Amino acid sequence: MKTIVRIIHGSHLYGTNTPTSDMDYKSVHIPDARDILLHQVKPVISIKTKVDCRVKNTLEDIDDESFSIKKYLNLIAVGDTMGVEILFTPDQFLVESTFEWNQIVMLRDRLINRKCAGFVGYCRKQAAKYGIKGSRVACVKDALNWLSSINSQKKMGDLDNLLQEFVNCHEFTSIVEIEQPNGILLNHWEVCDRKIPYTVSVAEARRIFQMVYDNYGERARMAETNEGIDWKAVSHACRVGTQAIELLTTGIITLPRPDASYLLQVKKGELPYKEVAEHLEFLLEDVEKAATNSSLPKESDLDLMDRIVENYHLVEIQDHYALEPHFIRE
User: Fold this and answer.
1) Is the same domain home to 208 and 262?
2) Is residue 156's pLDDT more than 80?
3) Quick one: pLDDT band at residue 324, thresholds 50, 70, 90?
4) What DSSP string runs through 10-56?
């Protein structure tokens, strides 16, 4: 295979590396001509020096991942975080770079889009896991109090008008339709990302929201003691949030990150849990607003992506078989 770009990735690229940080490399390659013709292309080739996946990486460990050109462009099309980062990697982090890669970088404005799926998805996951914004807690509490005043045997669907009134008066709550396996759309009452189908009883809804409320209470306790926090994961969420906002508003990503010192503080657990968790909650809201107002295209130029893959594959095949003709032998 022909590597067209290889970069230093991870904390070294973001500017958040510590003396014990391992080395991460990401590459994009054009597959071998024979693999292309025989449809045997491996989308991802991964090499890791660490044998035991249950153990954290050390300074000596190396993670090296290479993506076929087709797989890589597919990552860009769905808004994958890592894929977009490679497009904006500055020269000092390029281990290897070719003419083919320079062509792709020149076309990146037609390749990126406003989806930012990887950015928003990761940020939302961590916000839901660690978020403790007071208004969310209050919303769940109000939902519990309201449910306590209603006959526990009733179905949620019997309360549609009352639910609409509750939604109109509360943030972090809505009525959403979700398609069921049989294709039928079913209304759900959503409170702080937890969805309750209209088919369940009031008693069951109360039980579920009580668990949500108790979980918020546990997070509040953790906020006071900074216990049980995956600070590295939280720092990643903060980083991808600010990267997404920059990409959606300016069309670029700055690497290393301008807020690297703050991210490093988060990564080391030097800031109060509550402060960081609330920052992450608000950051997610800003990302979603930026996505709505972004001037980036809704979709990547998929035809251009297909032509890039077609041209690079064709050249690889022509070059290979012009220099090394293969003949069928008995």
Assistant:
1) no
2) yes
3) low
4) THHHHT---TT--EEEEEEEEPPHHHHHTT---SEEEEES---TTSP
Q: Give the predicted TM-score (pTM) of the model.
A: 0.72
Reading the block at residue 133, the tokens are 């914004």
C-alpha separations of 19 from 11, 22, 150, 228, 266 in Å: 11, 9, 58, 23, 16
Q: Single out the residue in 207, 225, 243 at which a domain terminates.
A: 225
Query: Does 204 lie in the same domain as 125?
Result: no
Residue 294 and residue 292: Cα distance in Å, rounded?
6
Neighbours of 249 (CB within 10 A): 16
Query: Burial level of 213, CB count in 10 A (0-12/13-18/19+)?
Result: middle
* Angle 12-18-23 from CA coordinates, rounded to 5°: 45
Last residue within a domain, chosen from 225, 248, 267: 225
Range of 309's domain?
2-113+297-323
For the ranges 150-154, 203-207, 323-327, which has the lowest average pLDDT? 323-327
Residue identified by tokens 């510590």 is 18
Q: Which pLDDT value is given to residue 328?
A: 46
